């Protein structure tokens, strides 16, 4: 359906983390892919998301319960995503922030160290308590993904949000309601899931520019 491909200008526009030397390449690419969704969600659906689904299905083919694991075009999460993602067109982009990424990293390391899979820290703090210390009185949210270290896998997994009826991860990536525009990212090892990725989102004043 989409013979059209992404342009260099679109990639350059989406790559707001290009000079953020406190992030790894995969962490920078998480922000790149989220921004591509926000530039043209429908195009992302028919290009990168289709690639992700094809790769995922080829990986799980070796399992006996392949028919249960595979992602089909009739999957209700896949179908509902098309409805949600087509309205994503030229939305405001996310910009990385070093302090917010440091908070994301701290939580991802805590999850790894204590073998947790929750938004709460090992000391019982909720994500809003962690973030509001440095970003008081701002709209905020958090996504956590388990099992992937590849940026495209992480973003597509959160976007599909299979098995999450609230679709909270998806709606953070497509957010317009809270005007989230600042993001912190960290990918870390995890004892139970091999990998975990923490993405923290904050709404900053529009005159805000990210630190390099």
Automatic annotation (TrEMBL):
InterPro entries from the UniProt entry: CAP_dom, CAP_sf
Gene3D superfamilies: CAP
Domain SCP: 88-195
Short name of any one Pfam family annotated for the protein: CAP
Entries under CDD domains matching the protein: CAP_bacterial
Name used for this protein in its record: SCP domain-containing protein
């Amino acid at each position: 359906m989409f013979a059209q491909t992404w342009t260099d200008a679109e990639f350059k526009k989406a790559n707001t983390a290009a000079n953020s030397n406190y992030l790894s390449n995969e962490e920078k690419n998480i922000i790149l892919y989220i921004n591509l969704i926000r530039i043209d969600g429908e195009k992302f659906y028919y290009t990168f998301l289709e690639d992700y689904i094809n790769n995922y299905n080829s990986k799980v083919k070796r399992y006996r319960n392949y028919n249960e694991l595979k992602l089909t075009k009739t999957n209700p999460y896949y179908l509902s995503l098309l409805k949600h993602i087509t309205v994503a067109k030229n939305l405001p982009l996310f910009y990385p922030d070093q302090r917010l990424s440091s908070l994301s990293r701290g939580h991802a390391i805590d999850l790894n160290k204590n073998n947790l899979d929750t938004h709460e820290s090992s000391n019982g703090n909720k994500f809003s308590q962690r973030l509001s210390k440095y970003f008081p009185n701002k709209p905020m949210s958090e996504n956590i993904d388990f099992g992937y270290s590849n940026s495209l896998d992480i973003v597509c997994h959160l976007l599909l949000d299979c098995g999450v009826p609230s679709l909270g991860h998806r709606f953070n990536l497509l957010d317009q309601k809270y005007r989230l525009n600042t993001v912190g990212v960290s990918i870390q090892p995890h004892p139970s899931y091999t990998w975990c990725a923490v993405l923290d989102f904050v709404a900053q004043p529009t005159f805000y520019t990210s630190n390099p």
